[in-house]
Design a protein that fits this description.
Length: about 70
């Protein structure tokens, strides 16, 4: 949350979230998903969300890009 707040203050054109929920317990993971979705709707900015969790990707994304062998 603190990192997200710091990023918002800078008014970026794009947010990059690299495995933001990987070290959180299940309850906090659900709460942070909601916060990230609300942030996206409120600010209307592009968010690049990196995850290895396919279900999480499908839950969070409007568009999904899959990388395989670095491509």
């Amino acid at each position: 949350r603190v990192a997200m707040g710091r990023a918002i203050v800078r008014d970026p054109e794009v947010f990059l979230f690299d495995e933001p929920l990987s070290n959180l317990d299940a309850q906090l993971r659900v709460a942070m998903r909601v916060e990230i979705k609300e942030l996206h709707q409120r600010l209307g900015t592009t968010i690049v969300y990196v995850t290895h969790d396919q279900i999480e990707a499908m839950t969070m994304a409007d568009k999904i890009v899959v990388m395989r062998d670095g491509k």
